[in-house]
Amino acid sequence: MTLDALDTGRSATIRAVDWSAIVADEAKRLRALGVDEGAEVTVTHRGVFGARDPLALRLGRMTIAIRRAHALAIEVDPTEAKAA
Amino acid sequence: MSRDDPVRTNAGHRVAALVGNPNAGKSALFNALTGARQKIANYPGVTVERKAGRLSLPPRGDGSPETLELIDLPGSYSFDAASPDEEVTRKVVHGDFPGEAQPEVLVLVLDAVNLEQHLVFAQEVLELGRPTVVALNMVDLAERDGLTLDPEALSQALGVPVIPTVAVRRKGLAELLDAIADAEAIAEEDAPRAHLTLPERRLAAKHMARGAILSRSTRHLMENGADRILLNPWIGPVILFALLFVIFQAVFAWATPFADALEGGVGILSDGVIATLPEGFLRDAITEGVLAGVGSVVVFLPQIVILFFFILLMEATGYMARAAFLMDRLMAGVGLSGKSFIPLLSSFACAIPGIMATRSISDPKDRLTTILIAPLMTCSARLPVYAVIIAAFIPATSVGPGIGLQGLVLFALYVAGIVGAMIVALVLRRTLAKGGASGFIMEMPRYQMPALKDLAIGLWQRAWVFLRRAGTIIFMATIALWLLLSFPQAEPGESQLDASFAGTIADGLHPVLEPIGFNREISLALIPALAAREVAVSALATTYAVDAEDEDVAAQGVTGRIAAQWSLPTALAFLAWFVFAPQCLSTIAVTRRETNSWRWPVFMTVYLFALAYVFAGLTYWSAVALGL
Lengths: 84, 628
Known about the structure:
The complex is a heterodimer. Chain A is built from 2 helices and 5 strands; from the N terminus they run E-H-E-E-E-H-E. By secondary structure, chain A is α+β, with helices and mostly antiparallel strands. The longest helix of chain B is centred in the C-terminal third of the chain and has 35 residues, at 452-486.
């Protein structure tokens, strides 16, 4: 599944990123921020007034904002949900 | 001793540069070390700010350097530059920047809380093999988040000294300066490091961070709690808009007493000049020219300071990035991103800092569009113009509980500017600034208590830019206008305005502006107001003051004169004109500098004047047709 399909509050491990779908400078920026294969991310917030854009991700102790277009290029394996 | 000896020529003086990720607290550390002794300029040829400060190093009498020049380099995630800022950092650190000496010591600033992430870029910096000192910053916040760090272990892993600091509390500064003074010897012992790939660096960073963390509690992070409310998709935007409303209220309400005091001060000064100087050219030049003109502008200082206080506060606390997140969807609608929100918000105070703030937008097309629409945000320089016209023509009646008609008109003018900007952005993104990424990737810094000192330094720098402008451009423009208005002197029985050079110029301009309802006084006032919008008010004041033969009429003030002589359609057209007209030399100059070409400032000026002319005309003829 893509990162875009991950529910808010859920975590996942990045399996693959389709870098060709992202503009070169943005790809550089994402990689520098740690968005890359193997990284564990949590979708913490999403959009305003019900919109799907943008997304807030937690990576380690850092929170970053990205757009849905980026999330669609990121393949993830969801981490098993903890018992609520 | 030879002058060519590289060690000796610089003995006693040392140049160090702060490098690190954005949000590592570099600027706070820079402020803490240099205080207000900062020199801010631009790197030649690029629009990246160069901040430098000088300070003395602790004296030790062993020939170690005594003074330090500290440079605050733009924050970088990597030397593989993705923005002009990062490009500057890369070049300066490598000694590749023309005209900029390579820093002798690098002060690598790491955020203690975000160690794993910051250690990735840290390895790139250390691979250079330059003398380096690490400032492990914000150790207090790490403790708040339940992290206990071991600087010794980190120092071992990195091979350079590590000094724990808390920039905002001035902790660890003396130790850091000592380490900077000693840096050379330590770094030279180390062999050049291996060049790793990014995934390798990330893995190494993970190991080093683990090794440096003594204990970590699973304490709940404050961010999560605060963001749950502030970034909530429903409550978040409501809080943001409420905050913006409070800010604009404050700008108008809180500033009034200060503005009145300033105005009173100018009046007292003017009376003093009248009492001391003999009647004649010099006295008139000072009172009617300088004090009337510059005084009418300096009055806006309180509003600018208040607006910037809130903007700096939003930035310092970390909320500004959240505001950008919340605004992103809206901005995406016109082809921009949340990053444009900060420059555009600043532009409500003044387009100059707003346009300068577009540097944080990495996509060039996004940035260009934001620069081109920034002058459409209602800057504080328009307020005097709006205030005078509204006071003269709009009755202070109430249209609802707590809503005055005057305030409503002012609000409508703000909205007109915003809507205009959005439409222009939409058009530009489909035509001239087509394509590009228009993505939105942004780190959201941790929430933080702002340091008063950093706020004070920021406010002072912005107030100074404004005052310098008032003291130069506006000063010259008012003097020039006063001269044009006063010469040649009128024959008895002839109006001074008609006889003056300015009158002649206005006669030439008037036929062009007459179709949109502008009278001759407006045509005249618009000439000096090309320098700065607020000059329009002082120009009208000067025009009517010079023209008033009788003291009583002069005392009526500009509001009274306008109310008596202008028609309502003319006044409304004048307001519409100022929503769009790019009457600000500084904005055009800063656009030239920020876009590095004449093409865009010329384009901006032409399109905004065209819009101003069309909308003033539409307003005038609609008002006439409605029989107003």
